[in-house]
């Protein structure tokens, strides 16, 4: 495990201890930790883990990495996800039902990212999140 991954995991554990144990609230620290809580694949690595490079998990990793590094507005994407939910197909409704609004906002961001940069690709893989 790389130092960066260990740091990311330590950072997440520190947040839990500070916020839950002590009631500590630092806006910048807590906001950074919110990103760590959302991610299923990205753990602060500099490059896509080798085991996911040619897999849909690599796409999810890349999307989460872009979301975190660019510090996208978590609440705005969550709100956008809830607003467009009524217009989405049943597979996306099922996915949204399994995720928090913030996680669904992240998935919506990933779909938007790949829709923009790979417009001719099929995005059916997005429901595998």
Q: Give the structural class.
A: mainly alpha
What series of H and E elements makes up the topology?
HHHHHH
Report the mean per-residue pLDDT as an integer: 78
Count of strand segments: 0
Q: Whole-number radius of gyration? A: 15 Å
Helix content bin: 55-70%
Oligomer: single chain
Biggest sheet details = none
Strand share of the residues? Answer: under 5%
Terminal CA distance reads 23 Å
Shape: globular
* Unreliable segments of 5+ consecutive residues: 24-30
The helix tally amounts to 6
Characterise this structure.
It is a single chain. With about 130 residues, the protein is mainly alpha-helical. Helix content is about 65%, strand content about 0%. The chain has 6 helices and no strands. The protein has helices at about 5-20, 25-40, 55-70, 75-85, 90-100, 100-115. It is globular.
How do the helices and strands line up, and which of them pair or pack?
Blueprint lengths: L2 H20 L4 H12 L17 H14 L4 H11 L5 H9 L2 H17 L12
